[in-house]
Specification:
It is a single chain. By secondary structure, the protein is an alpha/beta fold. Helices cover about 35% and strands about 30% of the residues. It contains ten helices and twelve strands. β10 (about 235-240) and β11 form a beta hairpin.
Amino acid sequence: MLTDEVVVRTRDLTMHYGSKVVLDGIDIEVHRGEVVALLGPNGAGKTTTIEILEGLRSPTSGLVEVFGINPLHASIEHRARVGVVLQSWRDHGRWRVREFLHHLSILYAPFRADDATWSVDALLERVGLGDRARSRIASLSGGQRRRLDVAVGLIGQPDLLFLDEPTTGFDPHARREFHELMHELADTRSTAILLTTHDLAEAERLADRILILDGGHIAANGSADDLARSVAGATEVRWRVADDRFVHSTDDATTFVRDLLVGDPGVTDLEVRRSTLEDTYLTMVARAANPTFVEETQ
């Protein structure tokens, strides 16, 4: 459930690698119970941003707070509130799946509430690895290892979860189960979730809010619907009258279609195509790269 509590905050965050400016004064806020997707082309600074928020990298300048504390100086109690699902990690292939998670669970135990609802076995079932509990990690398939990555990120019952390309290698069924689990965490446990992904459909399904990072700046910030509405001609209406076909782009499809049907009862094959997040993303990135960019309209 979304709350007013700010879990992640940056102000004027900058990061330079020598003369290269990777982040140029970005402002981010993430609230408890909110799912935020960080999108952007390769090299946009997504991973750098996440590493700074995780306390793995020191920024050049700017304010960084996670639970009100600079993550570079966070205590172990503070770090125990954060879960991380890395894009890749050294996965201790000789360990068996259950014993590995059980070991991590013991490490987190002093920092978890006594009524924590996930036991190791329950979590394995929840991520779809219940039948592989006694298998060695090295024997898991790529998708199963990714499920284990998710379990590792969740075993500490985090209040904040960082996800880096979390569903790489998932089949459609596993991806759907993962999405349901993320919604459960945000809605019932008020877990804040910040994810990076190249799967724009996944971002649209999961995220309450989307940040598009490009050229070191936040090029866009809003829900998928908000971003689509900010793009001219976001909704395309197609229809046919007798043998003639028509296409029209509009910001208010409901009003346009109502007036169309009232004015011409001969309308057939009516189709309303809402702009996808991919359409919006490509337009936003083009705008950021070229401020004089004008969307092509029909």
